[in-house]
From TrEMBL, chain A:
The chain crosses the membrane at residues 279-297, 335-359, 379-401, 413-439, 451-472, 510-533, 681-702, 722-744. Belongs to the TRAFAC class TrmE-Era-EngA-EngB-Septin-like GTPase superfamily. FeoB GTPase (TC 9.A.8) family. InterPro entries: Fe2_transport_prot-B, Fe2_transport_prot_B_C, FeoB_GTPase, G_FEOB_dom, Gate_dom, GTP-bd, P-loop_NTPase. It is a multi-pass membrane protein. It comes from Flavivirga rizhaonensis. This is Ferrous iron transport protein B.
UniProtKB/TrEMBL annotation, chain B:
Signal peptide: none annotated. InterPro entries: Fe-transptr_FeoA-like, FeoA, FeoA_core_dom, Transcriptional_repressor_C. Residues 3-74 form the Ferrous iron transporter FeoA-like domain. Keywords: Iron. GO terms for molecular function: transition metal ion binding. This is Ferrous iron transport protein A. The keyword Ribonucleoprotein does not apply.
Length: 745, 77
């Protein structure tokens, strides 16, 4: 007998199922996807008493075994498929002590599948506060199960739970209810047709659209075709079943649970009154959003500056320590700056996920849904679209997956289509660096101009999402029944462990997901930049030296020399308090030969870049983007960022590394490199207010994320919608950026 | 004519007497919106829609349109 047992955690949403999972597995967990679909699969390992190991799956939350979404379907598929390698030896149903009645509905359904089932009653710490008392022995006897009364918040009862899981063989598998009583004739026929199958399982197969593994398919198809009843009749039977289950549960709880309802006005009522108030509700929501943006901008700047400097020095260090050669260059100019371009955004992304996790955990998110539904409906969206639109500020991919609980297909489709307009964290790198380059520092009240600009960009994203929803709502001719149900969970103080694990998990998957693309693109960009396309590439050094020997420095080169001297001068003044004018000019004269050499090297490097494959690509797109205020180097970055937006910065940093072999004596961060970038012919700064705003707007609207397009294809099951998104959003972005630049320049 | 859930005012309570099965999603029934259960209107969202209910101890919000298909008998506040 194998020592490892399969345990499935099942339960209603908001019961603390994930807390139980975290308590059992700790950091021994991994998050992946169910094969072929994008539903998140969380699994982990837990050591039980007597050396037994449990493989634990945290199944998506569901109210019953009647699936109405892809996530819920996963639960049923697993429970009905004995051949699945994850098929549970024991099902652990997690319930919340305050909603025991509703939670037990799912419990009785699972019991009827004759799987050994254990009942966890969580949040036991709230019992006395709520005046609830339970007769555990009575409940165990009548529900024919073992009960673990636990509190994940206080970390109580977990060991007992582990014990009960380990002793799963003692659990009874007697069903709670005889479901066939709801229509005896029908179930009798069913039994005759499929004598070897569990009756309740057959019933579930008939009422659901369940996908099975290949082995079961033939058998199950036959069952699914066993209809004799119309859809409406089946639905009526399902209702009868639900009522019957509630009757059973009510009877059990009548004796097993007593609630003393003398508690007058609890925290929920008070908080709800404020948080869903017609004025204060919106004000508070807006203030929370404002706080989030200020935090992302302000609090993360310190670790970000630090990371930026570390990667710049690392690059320099590699260059100095390793022998010269193609590999060193690839490492120092391609891989390290490319990686730096993604690592730097970890602080911000972590903050964003932190806030979203706290809002979800505390129960506040449901209030926002409630508050916004009426407003959102005017735009063809649902209150539930708020969740995707907010989590879209982290990443559009999970956001589009989060649309699954929107019941109405039209509202859901519109939400999917407009979510990519919200400012995702991949846009953040581009926004932050460009804002810091072109928006002046300074404050209005307590908000900095730069933070305000960022806020404005988020607002633009949101407004364009909502207004395109409005237009789509008018254009799309889809009729679908409107309905909307959302649970309003109790307010809870978010648990540190849950929030921390979510933040770590999400940040990790973002960094590794995006990191792969960025690394690949950085290497490609570097390689393309290092392959010469004509003889000028290899002879660059000779050509430049020859020109300068014959004609001396031309206008641009002298200007660039002056720039270097000016910058050196200001750095001297900054670093030394009591430096005299004479000392400065002496020092500049002394350094000038070095500066000249640097100017010549820059010239060589940029001549090389221009004559590389990369340069040719950039030059090819330049005519199209010149009216927007971008040069060919930005063009390369824009082309590569159609894979993923955040590639923009790392591409530029790779290009600028390739483009200047010897730096001034100080290390250069990405931002400094961008700041000193000049147009080749005019020596004007590349990143000005006009081109900066134009870039910001382009990134605000353009659809530049292959992963999002892939997920839209998957969720809508058609290429039509992602292709439309790509074409319409990008065209719109181009036009807006064009207008902005032409007005501002 | 019988009252529906959509006609409850804030704080008012009732007992569910019937649900129109065609218009009510199964999910709502599973959450406890069944004949015989008690219901209280906890809060109205701005613009009076959706409505926030306490059905048999479960707190949930639904739209007025759906609520109008649930028949109730008022039992006061």
């Amino acid at each position: 007998m194998s020592k490892q047992i399969n345990v499935a955690l099942i339960g209603n949403p908001n019961t603390g199922k994930t807390s139980v999972f975290n308590a059992l597995t700790g950091l021994n967990q991994k998050v992946g996807n169910y094969p072929g679909i994008t539903v998140e699969k969380k699994e982990g390992i837990c050591k039980l008493p007597r050396g037994v190991k449990a493989h634990i799956i945290d199944l998506p939350g569901t109210y019953s075994l009647n699936a109405s979404s892809l996530d819920e379907n996963v639960v049923i598929e697993l429970l009905l498929n004995k051949n699945d390698k994850d098929f549970p030896d024991v099902a652990v149903v997690v319930s919340d002590v305050e909603n025991l009645k509703r939670n037990l509905l799912l419990f009785t359904q699972i019991k009827d599948l004759e799987i050994p089932t254990l009942l966890v009653i969580n949040m036991a710490d709230r019992m006395s506060y709520k005046g609830i008392s339970l007769d555990i022995d009575y409940l165990e006897k009548h529900l024919e199960t073992k009960i673990a009364l636990i509190s994940t918040r206080k970390n109580e009862g977990i060991d007992n739970l582990k014990n009960l899981i380990a002793n799963f063989k003692d659990l009874s598998i007697t069903p709670c209810i005889n479901a066939s009583e709801i229509d005896q004739d029908y179930f009798d026929n069913l039994r005759k047709a499929f004598p070897n199958q569990l009756l309740y399982k057959l019933w579930l197969v008939i009422t659901q659209d369940v996908n099975f593994g290949k082995t079961d398919r033939n058998k199950i198809d036959a069952v699914a075709n066993f209809k004799t009843k119309s859809k409406g009749d089946l639905k009526r039977l399902q209702q009868k079943e639900t009522i019957k289950r509630y009757q059973f549960i009510n009877n059990v709880l009548k004796k097993g649970q007593t609630i003393d309802v003398t508690q007058a006005k609890d925290l929920r009522t008070k908080l709800d009154r404020i948080l869903t108030h017609k004025v204060w509700g919106y004000v508070i929501f807006f203030v929370i959003l404002l706080l989030i943006f200020q935090a992302i901008y302000d609090w993360s700047s310190v670790p970000m500056d630090f990371i930026d400097t570390v990667f710049a020095s690392l690059s320099e260090w590699v260059k100095n320590m390793l022998p010269n050669g193609a590999f060193t260059n690839l490492l120092a100019e391609g891989i390290i700056p490319g990686l730096g371009g993604i690592v730097i955004f970890i602080p911000q992304i972590a903050f964003l996920f932190l806030f979203i996790a706290v809002l979800e955990e505390s129960g506040y998110m449901s209030r926002v849904v409630f508050l916004m539904d009426r407003v959102m409906r005017r735009f063809g969206l649902s209150g539930k679209s708020v969740v995707p639109l907010i989590s879209g500020t982290a990443c559009a991919i999970p956001a589009i997956m989060a649309t699954r609980n929107i019941e109405n297909w039209k509202e859901r489709l519109i939400t999917i289509l407009v979510t990519p307009f919200t400012t995702c964290s991949a846009r953040l790198p581009v926004y932050l660096i460009i804002i810091s380059l072109v928006i002046p520092e300074g404050h209005i009240f307590i908000l900095s101009y730069q933070a305000l600009t960022l806020m404005l960009l988020y607002l633009i994203g949101f407004i364009s999402a909502v207004s395109s929803a409005y237009i789509l709502n008018k254009i799309l001719k889809i009729k679908s029944k409107t309905f909307f149900v959302i649970e309003m969970p109790n307010y809870k103080l978010p648990m540190f462990k849950n929030v921390a694990l979510t933040v770590i998990e999400k940040t990790k998957s973002f960094v590794f997901g995006a990191g792969k693309i960025i690394l690949a693109i950085s290497i490609i960009i570097w390689v393309l930049g290092s392959i010469g396309i004509n003889s000028n590439y290899n002879n660059a050094k000779v050509i430049v030296n020859q020109k300068i020997n014959e004609n001396g420095f031309n206008k641009i080169q002298s200007l660039s020399l002056q720039n270097k001297q000016e910058r050196y001068k200001s750095s001297l003044i900054e670093d030394h308090d009591n430096i005299t004018k004479n000392q400065i000019s002496d020092s500049i004269i002394y350094k000038t030969p070095l500066f000249k050499k640097a100017v010549i090297n820059d010239e060589i490097a940029s001549l090389k870049l221009e004559n590389s494959v990369l340069g040719y690509i950039g030059k090819a797109v330049e005519p199209a983007i010149k009216p927007l205020g971008y040069d060919w180097k930005i063009g390369i970055a824009i082309v590569s960022s159609f894979a993923a937006r955040e590639v923009f910065i790392s591409t530029l940093s790779t290009i600028y590394s390739v483009g200047s072999e010897i730096e001034d004596n100080d290390n250069k961060t990405i931002r400094a490199k961008m700041e000193s970038e000049r147009h080749q012919l005019t020596n004007k700064a590349v990143f000005t207010f006009a081109s900066g705003i134009s870039l910001l707007l382009f990134y605000a609207f353009a659809m530049q994320c292959m992963s999002t397009l892939a997920i839209v294809k998957k969720e809508t099951n058609s290429w039509k919608w992602p292709v439309l998104q790509l074409v319409i959003m990008t065209t719109f972005a181009y036009i807006v950026a064009l207008i902005a630049f032409q007005f501002l320049k | 004519m019988q009252d529906t859930l959509a006609q409850l005012k804030r704080g008012e309570k009732g007992i569910i007497t019937d649900v129109s099965s065609i218009h009510i999603p199964l999910k709502l029934l599973e959450m406890g919106c069944l004949p015989g259960n008690s219901v209280q209107l906890v809060q109205l969202a701005p613009f009076q829609d959706p409505i926030y209910l306490n059905i048999n101890g479960t707190h949930l919000a639904i739209r007025k349109e759906t609520a109008s298909h649930v028949l109730i008998e008022k039992t006061g506040t």
